[in-house]
């Protein structure tokens, strides 16, 4: 009781500073006293839900949540989202900026659209490994017009049409990962590069894109990281498009690109003095590493 009365004398700002300096987990910390519980509840920004039936009660306790993680909630589906959003006040959605739905395969385009529309400040969405997601789900994601980061890894049914919808409506995108979205072609990448001019990170690994996509990607003036692992249809012609494009490029990954040769990669290096990292595993010989290091003396590491 004495310790609890002493904490009552501290202001909320001091309690928040104490919470920030304690290394132990917050779950244990909020059991110390009612003041810690109250401050921890108001300052928590991230919540990860295991069971959907507890979500409403938790969101009533933690009213300032900015990141909602439902990736380990196996029962999340369209019906659960509908009930969740219709249950009392939905003011908790007004502050959500990050939504993690990785592997939420039970959630369809109807529930996804309801959830996205209920979060007007949404900036980051992760729907990776939702293998059944297609163009209708992509259309639902396009409702998040403030979106800056989107991870769609292994959304196997998304085509150029779905990507076009996202590119047109979410033109503020800065980071986009399309790994294993194998229905996307050069056409979708071309439209993406015309609409999303702020892209800084782009992953097109294992897509059936050709060197024509790199012609479009070369027009991205803010691109810093470009990953194209396993793009077997891209050759040196595509890499030469990057030689005079993407002036801010700092890292490139061409691992497992079987049609890429030393001359193509050298053209990228010669056009980017500030290049910091090159990943070229499983496609280039050790002799290329020695040639680049000894002749060009580039400062960036090359990973084989």
TrEMBL record:
Gene3D superfamilies: Ribonuclease Inhibitor
Domain of life from the UniProt record: Eukaryota
Gene Ontology annotations for the cellular component aspect, listed alphabetically: SCF ubiquitin ligase complex
F-box/LRR-repeat protein 15-like leucin rich repeat domain segment(s): 117-209
Gene Ontology BP terms: SCF-dependent proteasomal ubiquitin-dependent protein catabolic process
Coiled coil region boundaries: none
Database matches in PANTHER family: F-BOX DOMAIN-CONTAINING PROTEIN, PARTNER OF PAIRED, ISOFORM B-RELATED
The name this protein goes by in its record: F-box/LRR-repeat protein 15-like leucin rich repeat domain-containing protein
Organism: Pisum sativum
Lineage: Eukaryota, Viridiplantae, Streptophyta, Embryophyta, Tracheophyta
């Amino acid at each position: 009781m004495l310790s609890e009365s002493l904490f009552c004398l501290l202001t909320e700002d001091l309690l928040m500073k104490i919470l920030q300096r304690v290394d132990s987990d917050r779950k244990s910390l909020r059991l110390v006293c009612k003041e810690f519980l109250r401050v921890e509840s108001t300052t928590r920004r991230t919540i990860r839900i295991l069971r959907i039936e507890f979500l409403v009660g938790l969101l009533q306790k933690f009213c300032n949540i900015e990141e909602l993680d439902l990736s380990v909630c196996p029962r999340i589906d369209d019906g659960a989202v509908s009930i969740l959003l219709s249950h009392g006040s939905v003011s908790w959605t007004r502050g959500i900026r990050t939504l993690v739905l990785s592997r939420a395969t039970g959630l369809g385009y109807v529930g996804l659209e309801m959830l996205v529309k209920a979060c007007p400040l949404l900036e980051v969405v992760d729907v990776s490994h939702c293998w059944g997601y297609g163009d209708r789900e992509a259309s639902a994601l396009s409702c998040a017009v403030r979106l800056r980061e989107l991870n769609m890894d292994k959304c196997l049914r998304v085509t150029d049409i779905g990507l076009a919808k996202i590119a047109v409506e979410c033109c503020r995108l800065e980071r986009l990962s399309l790994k294993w979205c194998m229905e996307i072609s050069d056409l979708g990448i071309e439209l993406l590069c015309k609409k999303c001019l702020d892209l800084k990170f782009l992953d097109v690994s294992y897509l059936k894109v050709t060197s024509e996509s790199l012609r479009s990607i070369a027009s991205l003036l803010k691109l810093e990281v470009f990953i194209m692992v396993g793009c077997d249809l891209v050759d040196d012609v595509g890499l030469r498009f990057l030689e005079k494009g993407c002036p801010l490029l700092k890292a490139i990954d061409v691992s497992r690109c079987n049609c890429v040769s030393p001359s193509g990669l050298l053209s990228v290096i010669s056009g980017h003095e500030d290049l910091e990292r090159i990943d070229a595993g499983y496609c280039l010989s050790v002799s290329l590493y020695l040639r680049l290091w000894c002749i060009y003396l580039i400062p960036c590491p090359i990973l084989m």
